[in-house]
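Renewal narrative, Specific Aim 1. Our central claim is that a sequence can be written position by position from structural information alone. The example that follows is taken directly from our test logs and has not been curated for this report. It begins with the structure tokens describing the chain, in the order in which they were read.
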């Protein structure tokens, strides 16, 4: 089989992507990225902020605390890491 995308086998387009802020880089090759999502409250409808932390694989240790980065879903890399750093948007 060839490695090109076919109707039966989609390309990498279906992976989730998030933009967030780096809150920790103390681990080797790992950045903790915090994302903020605005969602309506289930009962009252008021818009609230939902904060979630993701452990992202950062091979070259490019990210620094405070950077805005884009992460993408990937295969499990360790016990907690399921995301990888795609790009540093803002230093």
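The sequence written for that structure reads:
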């Amino acid at each position: 089989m060839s490695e090109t995308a076919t109707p039966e086998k989609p390309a990498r387009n279906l992976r989730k992507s998030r933009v967030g802020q780096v809150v920790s880089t103390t681990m080797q090759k790992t950045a903790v990225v915090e994302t903020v999502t605005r969602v309506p409250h289930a009962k009252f409808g008021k818009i609230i902020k939902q904060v979630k932390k993701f452990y992202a694989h950062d091979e070259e240790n490019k990210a620094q605390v405070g950077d805005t980065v884009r992460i993408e879903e990937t295969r499990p890399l360790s016990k907690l890491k399921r995301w990888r750093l795609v790009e540093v948007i803002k230093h």
